[in-house]
Amino acid sequence: MRKPRPSEVVRHVSLDIVNNAIKSGQLGDQELAVLKDNMLAYIRNVYGSGRSDNIQPDPLSIQNKITQTITNLFTSLYATNWTSFFHDVLALTTTNNSSMKDNAPGVMLYLRILVSVHDEIADVLSPKSPEEHRRDNELKDLVRQRDTLMIASSWHEILTTWKSKDESIVKLCLTAIGRWVTWTDIALAVNDSFLQLLFEYLDPLQNPSGDHVVERRDAAIEAFIDILGKKMSASDKLQLIEVLNIYEAVSQLVRCRELSDMRSTAHYDTDLAEGVAKLVNNTVTDIVKALDGAQDDNSVSQRGIALLKSFMPHILRFLSDEYDEICSTIIHSLTDLLTLLRKKAKSNSNLAPEFLPMLPLILDVIIAKLKYDETSVWGHEDTQTDEAEFQELRKRLHNLQKAVAAVDESMYVNKITSVVVSTFERYQEQNGQVDWRQLELALHEMELFGELALRHGGLYSKTKPVTPAAEQLIGMMFKLVQTGIARHCICRSSVLIASRYCFILSSCGPATVHGYLRKILCILRGEPRTHCSGFGDLHTFRAS
User: Fold this and answer.
1) Domain residue limits at 89
2) 12, exposed or middle or buried, with CB in 10 Å at 0-12, 13-18, 19+?
3) Would 332 be classed as within a structural domain?
4) 137, 335, 371, 393: which one has the fewest Cβ atoms less than 10 Å from its Cβ?
């Protein structure tokens, strides 16, 4: 090792050149062997048990480059010329005359190398050539045959040694475990002591001083998510969800102060809520996949349904979250669930009783989320970005509504009709003193409802409505016109509905229709409300 060390820039560029040479195959076996020996000697000297006290670890950027170089050497040499790879890097974790993994710099480098090796040979998101896929699969097979037992044992030793000493080591170890269990024997890593540690990290009461609570909790959540990502059969995946006790983990997190007591305050932990919502989303997605693939396996179906029922309150809780980012996180799994229910409803004519209670609850939350929240101010220019994001969320929620309607159309028709008509009646009873957000929601639901009512191309067959949905839409339109709802904030919706369903207006009576349309026209012109009280002449209105 040169003294003094070259500058960080020189070392960074030099390692880049070395890495490119390894990746491009420019180095032969002899050159690779010499490079391996030199790199191993260097990390032993700087990070191993024999390092001098006056030698400082490298900057993080250089550590990352060294990790990359060691990983590239692994892919080139592990199969034949460096079979002791994991033994050699694991030796960095102990100090002299010690059997414990108590050398912090060596432990950190060892864990970084494990994560890097996973990312190189097992990351399914990285684009690879067929030749690279073949090489990666061969390397994973060799690792499983040779070293996974030793590596898994090292994880437990590291967690035992450092769980009360260094949060960064424990967090990195949990990351490594979460990545590696997706392609190695999960039983080697996930045991009672490991799960106990995860639940301790989820519980802030286990760390009364408050130190590193967020880091601990985030690491545990990510570990759960990574472990759930392991591919396995439907039955095994349900068993994994049960063994990991994901339901209790989520319940514990939902009950924590940051997500319960502070939910409606400025101190609400949105990052934590989004992380837990992601865990719920991934879990429910796996449950739905298991149910979809169960076919005639009653055991899997019963276990899946039981798990789905237990997670339903958590699905609804995060779908109803006032923050749209958190609500959006859960939509994917809910879409999968509704798709499954639609398939079951089609194949069996009637949906199984265990699924029926879920639909009204889901629809209630969707309707509530379609409403502008209390912080929304109509016409405020500063909220244009928020408005665009909300409209994008509305599109996704509308797709969920359509999925609900496809499963149980009768329930959907009755529910939407009740929301719209009750709003109009309340407007009439309270002399127009109804919040604009509720009025806008009712009109918005009318717009969406029309897609279902008009799916056969029209509302009438001869003189009768073609479907119950068509009949209810006609009733909503009559009620809207009779009520005479007209405000600036809902003027766009009013005009859209009046133009889209103008053929219904002809049945409502000219005077009533004229009065309703004149109110809208006055608002568009900016005229005082007193000018809208008279009906005047319909021909005059048409001319205007």
Assistant:
1) 1-183
2) middle
3) no
4) 137
Kind plus residue range of the DSSP H or E element containing 173: helix 167-180
Distance of alpha carbon 146 from alpha carbon 78, whole angstroms: 11
For residue 401, tell me if it sits in a domain.
no
How many structural domains comprise the chain? 2
Structure tokens at 535: 């009906």
pLDDT 10s per residue in the chain (544 long)?
A: 566 778 889 998 999 999 999 998 899 999 999 999 999 999 999 998 777 667 778 899 999 999 999 999 999 999 999 999 999 999 999 987 777 898 999 999 999 999 999 999 998 888 889 999 999 999 999 999 999 999 999 999 999 899 888 889 999 999 999 999 999 999 888 888 889 888 988 876 665 545 577 888 898 999 999 999 998 998 999 999 999 999 999 999 999 989 999 998 888 999 999 999 999 999 999 999 999 887 777 888 899 999 999 999 999 999 999 999 999 999 999 999 999 999 888 877 566 788 888 999 999 999 999 998 887 776 665 566 778 888 999 999 999 999 999 999 999 999 999 999 999 999 888 888 888 899 999 999 998 998 888 886 777 777 787 788 888 988 888 888 888 777 666 777 777 887 777 777 766 667 667 777 777 777 666 655 544 444 333 333 333 3
User: With contact defined as beta carbons under 8 Å apart, do 240 and 191 qualify?
Assistant: no
Count of positions (residues) in the chain: 544
DSSP codes of every residue in 359-372: HHHHHHHHHHHHS-
39 falls within a domain:
yes
The full DSSP string for 261-328 is: TTTTSTT--HHHHHHHHHHHHHHHHHHHHHHHH-TT-HHHHHHHHHHHHHHHHHHHHHHT-SSHHHHH
Structure token digits, residue 422: 């009750």
- The H or E element containing residue 471 is helix 468-483
Label residue 367 exposed, middle or buried (CB < 10 Å: 0-12, 13-18, 19+): middle
**206 closest CA partner among 155, 258, 256:** 256
d(CA 311, CA 247): 7
Residue 194 lies in a domain: no
Which whole-number Å values give the CA distances from 286 to 183, 333, 414, 453, in the listed order?
Answer: 17, 9, 32, 34
What is the per-residue burial (b if ≥16 Cβ within 10 Å, else e) of 289-326? ebbbebeeeeebbebbbebbeebbebbbbbbebebbeb
Element (H, E) at 460: strand 460-461
DSSP annotation of 59 reads: P
CA 113 vs CA 67, 108, 155: distances in Å: 6, 9, 13
Radius of gyration of the chain (CA): 31
Angstrom distance (rounded) from CA 161 to CA 170: 9
Q: Which of 137, 166, 183 is the last residue of a domain?
A: 183
Q: Which two tokens stand for residue 39?
A: 């790199």
